[in-house]
Design brief:
single chain, Hypothetical Protein Aq_1857, Chain: A, seven-stranded mixed sheet, three-stranded mixed sheet, 2 helices, 10 strands
Length: 112
């Protein structure tokens, strides 16, 4: 069973971007964040759209948009916030993770 999470967050900017992309693709406004081994620093973030929560997912909701994190990834991103940032270098979802001991320059990889 999925549970409403208080230990992950989706910013309003990220929620707005997820809603826009989901509407264009005709999908539900549900973003999944998972962590996989690899990347320059040991772990890397992976984003994707989901049709529905799966058993064991933690769910954060902002402005009607849901962020899902599976129970295995949750320990590595507990306390994090997913934001959407636009800069001269481009636009991307960004994870602000207090558990990360270090990260890489690209912002998609981290170590604990």
């Amino acid at each position: 069973m999925a549970t409403l999470a208080t230990d992950i967050a989706l910013t309003s900017a990220a929620a707005a971007r997820v809603a826009t992309i989901a509407a264009k693709q005709g999908k539900p406004a549900i973003l999944r964040l998972s962590v996989e081994g690899g990347g320059c620093s040991g772990f890397q973030y992976k984003f994707g759209f989901a049709d529905a929560p799966e058993p064991g997912d933690a769910i954060a909701e902002t402005d009607g948009v849901r962020l899902l994190v599976d129970d295995m990834s949750l320990d590595l991103v507990r306390g994090c916030a997913v934001d959407y940032v636009e800069s001269l270098g481009g636009a991307a979802f960004k994870v602000e993770n207090p558990n990360a001991a270090s990260g890489c320059g690209c912002g998609t990889s981290f170590a604990v």
